[in-house]
């Protein structure tokens, strides 16, 4: 529960007559540009980097794939990982093998893209993701406005004396619990930067594994994942959260979200998107 | 500087040497009905067409050669009084002017109305009569000072329900809001729907947007000077109201045993919207509480002819919360004032005040295994002696000084998780802001008044505490901390000083019209860090530091003032240009709360605003009210925003029109109407959609800021006031007000935002957010006894 969300709930409670409606707005289109979606992690499955084009804001079609690029990731240890798009879908895949390990703890990586005569580059590093100790499910423990039912929390401890940034995802029977505008982030197990350090994840973060519209039911299979992210990535998501949840009395000026994809050669358009390497910590439990 | 001082000294020596066969009339202008002094009343000498204005404490002093004179005393809403006086020695004279009894009968009065707005030197200034404020149709039937101010030219707001107001392109923190001389940091209750001023206890409201006198300083854009009533000196009375949202009660009267030399007033309000709303709230909000209360009190005592003391205080709080969280905030101020007459020509007021604004936020209750508690304060103490010297009829000299000591507690928070607690407390910050000023208002011939003065402000950022040095990184991203330095108690970490010249000029074209011009430089050492459309009650105030420079504004204004129909209709046109330095903006996704190094996230830019303001007012008669129209532009230029180009501010409103009318249908029924039209607020709209990790977000071409405008805002409010039959010696006076807010149910946009449809991740949409989209009728009952 961010401060902003809290204020939003309050203003909704006070301004009983406030309302929201979908309106028609004419927006100016801009020339499409390359969008890089490169989130890779230490999981033991194949890793994928997706390249697409941007589209007009109200366009409902799936993004057009950007094909024909050369995509590779190079580690600070000198290993090169080639990502290939074998079916021209814009999805560039590195197939898992038993020899190489991608996203090793403490190692930094560079993403290199060669696309239509321009070169793009981005860097990232792999930080620690703490072990998830346990999960617990209890009835009606949450915040005002929730339906009755079981709500879950996970327990983990943040390593002390260092800054750790996390992205927390959860799945109920394989379905992601987060809506299209929810990104659960944590700094040192807390919510403020710098704030908190080296202790058990705080309550609001522990509760971030719920779909607050749909409580858990006995027998549900729950998967919780903590992805370690860089400070940069945390800021990228922070700017994104700011932008995509910018409603109400306390809206902030809408800004572009940062990108770490830098054009290093060629005269192509600047790209948007992000490259992040994560360590992954995962736990699966069944609601009893 | 030396030269200026020498010139000033010579001028005053000259003024000193002038008095020969002259005598002084001095005294107070008073309302005999309640014994209250009348400030801002004009005192004209018929014989030689000179005059003066009673000061904030109702005091006046005029020095004239021996002779017989006719004094004409007038004030809006009061009967004009003429008094003959034979001046052959220094004379002490208190003059009584009565409030007009029934407004309906005023049409019959044919006596010449006064042309104060034309004659006075002050421009860009509007004195609001509390009676006029009470007549306006109001949201939920509750008249409100700040909402009334928003109907004046040059004053805008970011939207309905938003805290504060914006004057001539200035931020909300650039208004010096004074309640009996003590600053109020958050002027709002229930966000921005009501202000902290209880109209029953308010005597006068004056808004100064330009040509600001040197006695005021510390904010760039305006001064809102709210003065409380002193309390009825003659008899014990009460007043109050019962409304839909809150009830008010005010008691006032003479202090027993002071022989009508002392009086008091005490006024309280408490909202009960949460109790009334309960049946309509969904189950999830059943435990919600949201209410506010405030208490305003004042006592004064005329010790003798030469000394008067006043004590006043305000305490108010807003409380919001649910079963698991809560937050509350409020101001408290205490003011002590001493009026002293050194001579019949030298008046002094010394004010000492304490002001505290604080807020706290809680998740969980104290002692719970899991929780978060946070509180923050801004405290200041100030002393300001102010002198008014009336050497002769041609000159009025004001001089004085002020010192404000700031103690800011930016925040202390405790987190607990699973029974383990940790805390973070940001160190207190201290500063001393001092100023000295002098000004002379000089009449040159019968047509020109010139006012020239200077305020010099001196600011010290003090220890004990830390200061931080940052390295400039890429503009627009967080600055990198290089070093931290510890400082001892009262050590001067950084100081600034700013000379602030103030000039005003008035030329009477004829009896009905005048031309006025002014220039002022203002500086501001305290800043509200707010990045949201409407400021939140949790926004942090920061004093100037080694990294955060004072804000500075220069403003010029020129105006033409003209009265029509025997002064029944007053009108003015003013144009202004204001340039502002060191205006704050923020990096993307700035986190200013509980962040020791928040300065690393601030951007500094330049602001400019210009416009033309038109104002027509009819204060008396069966139909009265005002029409104001502002054509303006308010822009900022901040490195890294909008590709370094100028962009309009959120409160830039090209057109801003307000019509406020009140009409006496019969002696007992009064109709009030208020219409507002403004250009839609600037807003940033996206161009492209980007999808990463299944999340859609927007891209804005060229990093534009405020590249679109939301739809125009307009609204009509109406009210009907039913008064009882005219009856003398009535013990109880009650009136009923029926009001309708937003008569034609206009759904005005507050913001338009863009999101992914929560039900369909492939769809992105634009959503208009409206605060009030329906008609809001209400009934309230006001009484006096």
Précis, in short:
The complex is a heterodimer of chains A (288) and B (785). Helices cover 10% and strands 38% of the residues of chain A.
Strand content of chain A: 35-45%
Tally of discrete structural domains of chain A:
2
* Low-pLDDT segments, ≥5 res of chain A: none
- Major β-sheet profile of chain B: 22 strands, antiparallel, barrel
Give the fraction of residues assigned to helices of chain B: under 10%
CATH architecture of the largest domain in chain B: Beta Barrel
Q: What's the CATH topology label of the largest domain in chain B?
A: Maltoporin, Chain A
Number of strands of chain A: 18
Secondary-structure class of chain B: mainly beta
Report the average pLDDT across residues of chain A.
Answer: 88
Report the total helices of chain A.
Answer: 3
Detail the topology: elements first, then pairings.
The complex is a heterodimer of chains A (288) and B (785).
Chain A: H1 3-14, E1 19-23, E2 34-41, E3 47-53, E4 55-56, E5 70-75, E6 80-83, E7 91-94, E8 108-115, E9 118-125, E10 132-139, E11 150-156, E12 165-172, E13 175-176, E14 184-187, H2 203-206, E15 221-229, H3 231-244, E16 262-265, E17 272-278, E18 280-286
Parallel strand pairs in A: 2-17
Antiparallel strand pairs in A: 2-3, 3-7, 5-6, 5-8, 8-9, 9-16, 10-11, 12-13, 12-14, 12-15, 15-18
Chain B: H1 2-16, E1 22-30, E2 42-45, E3 50-53, E4 59-65, E5 67-74, E6 81-87, E7 91-92, E8 95-96, H2 116-119, E9 125-129, H3 130-135, H4 145-149, E10 155-156, E11 166-167, E12 175-179, E13 182-183, E14 188-189, E15 194-195, E16 202-208, E17 222-228, E18 237-242, E19 246-254, E20 262-271, H5 273-277, E21 289-302, E22 307-321, E23 325-343, E24 346-363, E25 371-392, E26 395-417, E27 420-426, E28 429-444, E29 448-462, E30 465-471, E31 480-487, E32 492-508, E33 513-524, E34 526-529, E35 540-543, E36 551-564, E37 569-586, E38 602-618, E39 623-637, E40 647-648, E41 655-664, E42 669-678, E43 682-683, E44 688-692, E45 695-699, E46 708-709, E47 713-722, E48 733-741, E49 749-756, E50 764-770, E51 776-784
Parallel strand pairs in B: 1-7, 1-8, 12-17
Antiparallel strand pairs in B: 1-4, 2-3, 2-5, 5-6, 9-16, 10-11, 12-13, 14-15, 16-17, 18-19, 18-51, 19-20, 20-21, 21-22, 22-23, 23-24, 24-25, 25-26, 26-27, 26-28, 28-29, 29-32, 30-31, 32-33, 33-36, 34-35, 36-37, 37-38, 38-39, 39-40, 39-41, 41-42, 42-47, 43-46, 44-45, 47-48, 48-51, 49-50
């Amino acid at each position: 529960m961010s401060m902003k969300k809290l204020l939003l709930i309050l203003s909704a409670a006070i301004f009983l007559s406030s309302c929201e409606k979908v309106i028609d707005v004419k927006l100016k289109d801009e020339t499409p540009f390359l969008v890089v979606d490169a989130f890779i992690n230490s999981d033991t499955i194949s890793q994928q980097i997706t390249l697409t084009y941007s589209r007009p804001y109200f366009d409902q079609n799936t993004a057009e794939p950007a094909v024909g690029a050369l995509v590779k990731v190079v580690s600070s240890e000198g290993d090169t990982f080639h990502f290939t798009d074998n079916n021209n879908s814009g999805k560039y895949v590195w197939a898992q093998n038993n020899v190489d390990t991608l996203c090793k703890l403490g190692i930094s990586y560079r993403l290199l893209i060669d696309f239509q005569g321009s070169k793009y580059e981005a860097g990232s590093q792999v930080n620690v993701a703490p072990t998830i100790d346990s999960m617990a499910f209890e009835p009606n423990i949450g915040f005002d406005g929730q339906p009755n039912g079981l709500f879950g929390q996970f327990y983990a401890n943040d390593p002390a004396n260092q800054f750790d940034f996390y992205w927390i995802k959860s799945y109920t029977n394989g379905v992601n619990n987060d809506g299209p505008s929810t990104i659960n982030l944590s700094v040192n197990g807390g919510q403020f930067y710098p704030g908190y350090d080296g202790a058990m994840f705080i309550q609001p973060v522990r509760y971030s594994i719920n779909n607050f519209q749909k409580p858990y039911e006995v027998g549900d299979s729950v998967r919780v994942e903590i992805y370690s992210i860089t400070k940069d990535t945390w800021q990228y998501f922070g700017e994104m959260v700011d932008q995509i949840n910018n409603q109400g009395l306390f809206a902030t000026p809408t800004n572009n979200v940062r990108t770490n994809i830098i054009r290093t050669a060629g005269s192509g358009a600047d790209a948007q998107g992000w490259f992040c390497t994560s360590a992954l910590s995962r736990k699966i439990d069944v609601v009893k | 500087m030396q030269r200026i001082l020498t010139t000033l000294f010579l001028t005053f020596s000259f003024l000193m040497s002038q008095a020969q066969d002259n005598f002084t009339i001095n005294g107070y202008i008073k309302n005999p009905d309640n014994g209250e002094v009348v400030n801002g009343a004009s005192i004209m000498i018929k014989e030689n067409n000179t005059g003066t204005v009673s000061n904030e404490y109702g005091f006046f002093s005029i020095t004239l050669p021996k002779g017989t004179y006719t004094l004409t005393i007038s004030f809006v809403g009061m009967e004009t009084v003429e008094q003959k006086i034979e001046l052959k020695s220094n004379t002490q004279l208190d003059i009584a002017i009565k409030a007009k009894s029934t407004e309906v009968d005023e049409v019959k009065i044919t006596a010449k109305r006064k042309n104060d707005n034309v004659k006075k030197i002050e421009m860009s200034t509007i004195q609001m009569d509390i009676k006029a404020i009470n007549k306006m149709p109001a949201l939920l039937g509750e008249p409100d000072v700040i909402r009334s101010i928003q109907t004046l030219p040059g004053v805008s707001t970011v939207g309905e329900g938003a805290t504060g107001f914006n004057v001539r392109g200035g931020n909300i923190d650039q208004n010096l809001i004074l309640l009996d001389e003590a600053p109020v940091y958050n002027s709002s209750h229930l966000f921005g729907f009501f202000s902290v001023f209880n109209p029953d206890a308010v005597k006068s409201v004056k808004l100064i947007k330009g040509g600001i006198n040197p006695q005021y300083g510390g904010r760039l854009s305006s001064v809102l000077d709210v003065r409380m009533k002193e309390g009825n000196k003659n008899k014990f009375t009460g007043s109050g109201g019962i409304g839909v949202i809150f009830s008010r009660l005010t008691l006032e009267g003479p202090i027993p045993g002071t022989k009508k030399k002392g009086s008091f007033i005490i006024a309280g309000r408490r909202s009960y919207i949460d109790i009334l709303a309960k049946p309509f709230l969904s189950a999830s909000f059943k435990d919600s509480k949201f209410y506010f209360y405030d208490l305003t009190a004042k006592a004064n005592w005329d010790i003798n002819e030469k000394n008067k003391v006043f004590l006043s205080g305000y305490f108010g709080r807003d409380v919001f919360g649910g079963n698991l969280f809560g937050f509350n905030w409020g101001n408290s101020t205490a003011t002590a004032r001493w009026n002293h007459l050194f001579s019949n020509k030298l008046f002094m007021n010394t004010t000492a005040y304490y002001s505290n604004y604080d807020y706290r936020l809680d998740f969980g209750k104290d002692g719970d295994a899991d929780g978060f508690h946070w509180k923050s304060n801004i405290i200041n103490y100030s002393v300001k002696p102010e002198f008014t010297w009336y050497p002769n009829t041609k000159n009025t000299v004001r001089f004085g000084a002020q010192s404000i000591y700031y103690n800011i507690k930016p925040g202390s928070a405790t987190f607990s998780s699973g029974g383990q607690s940790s805390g973070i407390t940001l160190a207190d910050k201290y500063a001393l802001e001092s100023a000295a000023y002098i000004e002379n208002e000089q009449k040159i011939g019968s047509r020109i008044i010139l006012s020239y003065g200077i305020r010099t402000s001196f600011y010290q950022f003090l220890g004990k505490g830390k200061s931080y040095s940052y390295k400039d990184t890429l503009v627009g991203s967080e600055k990198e901390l290089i070093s931290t330095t510890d400082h001892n108690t009262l050590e001067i970490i950084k100081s600034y000083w700013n000379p602030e010249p103030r000039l005003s000029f008035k030329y009477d074209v004829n009896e009905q019209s005048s031309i006025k011009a002014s220039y002022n430089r203002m500086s501001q050492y305290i800043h509200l860090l707010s990045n949201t459309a409407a400021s939140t009650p949790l926004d942090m105030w920061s004093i100037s530091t080694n990294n955060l420079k004072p804000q500075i504004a220069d403003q010029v204004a020129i105006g033409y003032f003209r009265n029509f129909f025997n002064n029944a209709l007053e009108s003015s046109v003013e144009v202004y240009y204001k340039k502002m330095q060191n205006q704050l903006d923020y990096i993307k996704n700035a986190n200013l709360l509980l962040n020791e190094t928040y300065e690393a996230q601030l951007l500094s830019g330049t602001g400019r605003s210009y416009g033309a303001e038109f104002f027509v007012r009819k204060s008396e008669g069966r139909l009265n009210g005002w029409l104001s129209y502002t054509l303006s532009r308010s822009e900022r230029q901040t490195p890294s925003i909008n590709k370094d180009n100028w962009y309009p501010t959120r409160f830039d409103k090209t057109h801003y029109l307000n019509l406020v009318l009140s009409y006496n249908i019969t002696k007992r029924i009064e109709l009030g109407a208020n219409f507002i039209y403004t250009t839609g607020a600037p807003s940033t709209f996206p161009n492209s959609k980007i999808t990463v990790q299944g999340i859609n977000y927007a891209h804005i071409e060229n990093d534009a800021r405020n590249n679109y405008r939301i739809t125009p805002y307009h609204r009509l409010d109406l009210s009907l006031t039913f008064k009882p039959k005219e009856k003398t010696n009535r013990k109880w006076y009650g009136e009923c007000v029926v009001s309708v807010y937003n008569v034609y149910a206009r759904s005005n946009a507050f913001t338009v935002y863009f999101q992914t449809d929560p039900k369909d991740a492939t769809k992105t949409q634009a959503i208009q957010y409206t605060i009030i989209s329906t008609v809001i009728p209400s009934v309230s009952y006001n009484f006096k006894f």
